[in-house]
Amino acid sequence: MATTAVAPATATAPILLITGASRGIGAATARLAAQRGWDVVVNYARDAAAAERVAAEVRAAGRRALVIQADVADEAQVLAMYERIDAEWGRLSGLVNNAGIVAPQARLDEMSAERIQRLMGVNVVGALVVAREAVRRMSTRHGGAGGAIVNVSSAAARLGSPGMYVDYAASKGAIDTFTMGLGLELAAEGVRVNGVRPGMTDTDIHADSGDPQRPFKLAHTIPMQRPGRAEEIAAAIVWLLSDEASYTTGTLLDVSGGR
Ligand code: NAD
């Protein structure tokens, strides 16, 4: 009996790494990216079971998922994550630098240096090192086939978050500047770099800063009078990753209900 070799549906799918993809905006981005044809590396820091649930949703959409634990603030863990992606799947062509933290609400004169260093370590140093490794794989300068990077900033970068977390706002300001600079650095090397600035979005990050209800308490300060949903942020991220954004680089897109 003749047999026909059929390439698996996943053979040509582009590979996307999303940091901090076990919940919130990262998880919503993983789900939508899978629906749009990406194979997804689900990076997580702590909650393995949640990361596995996201991976199951990626697979249910017909795409591959690879779950990898790595603290983005730890260079050795980031390098090990990329080595695993290289070995098991090959070169990636998409990165969403999504992992981010806030600390409990405070004024600057109440913050310890340790808190500020950890926050900058995850939100800024982590994002730069994770992006550096992506560039080494995507840029035509390194023999890559190009790609797209989306950095998740925040409306806080523009607003400053006085009395709440100026350290967090400063970290996102750094992400904005980094996005513009790297976009220009790579513009002729086949890699687009853009950022999304979410406004107040209903995710678990607010519990970490001490007030899970903050997005709803502050809804009156948002022109649309409601917090965003993770899926609404994901839609902008996935668009910036897509070929529909092929002439867009070095720019920041506000997804903030007008705030
Ligand atoms: P979230 O807390 O639900 O998700 C953040 C994810 O990052 C979690 O999965 C967490 O485990 C992961 N993470 C944290 N530290 C990590 C580390 N060191 N290494 C790897 N992963 C790590 O919050 P979210 O709202 O989904 O936040 C996603 C991004 O969106 C963050 O960068 C955040 O700053 C940004 N953002 C959120 C809002 C909002 O209102 N929710 C607004 C603006 C920007």
From TrEMBL:
InterPro entries: KR_dom (IPR057326), NAD(P)-bd_dom_sf (IPR036291), Sc_DH/Rdtase_CS (IPR020904), SDR_fam (IPR002347). Belongs to the short-chain dehydrogenases/reductases (SDR) family. PROSITE patterns: ADH_SHORT. CDD domains: SDR_c. Keywords: Oxidoreductase. Residues 14-203 form the Ketoreductase domain. Pfam families: adh_short_C2. This is SDR family oxidoreductase. The keyword Oxidoreductase applies. It comes from Pseudaquabacterium inlustre. It comes from the Bacteria.
